[in-house]
Amino acid sequence: MSANYISAEDSKALKAICEEILGIEDLILLENEKLGWESKLSQQQLNEYIPMLSKFIQLKDIMILSISEIGERYKLGFFNCFENIEDLVKLVQMLFEDSDRRDTLVDILQQRV
What we know:
mainly alpha; 6 helices; about 70% helix
């Protein structure tokens, strides 16, 4: 197997790991509530101020999305958190076998300037 390919099984495992890591955030919020501390920022504001969190959430989801779902999310601006679109392109190339559909998505992603 090529080191440049992520299998469907590995993709699901990576998503599960990401979910576990994101679960820690929920635990922290729960503990903060018990202590009476609440953030004055909404989840959307937190995502804007912490771009890495948004990117991590999208990365988790990408692991199990289809090519068409990734394309739709891209059109909706979900991947604006990727400052270097080539990172997203490489991930798509590792997740999906070489095909016309993958090439079309890569072309669409690379058109962003």
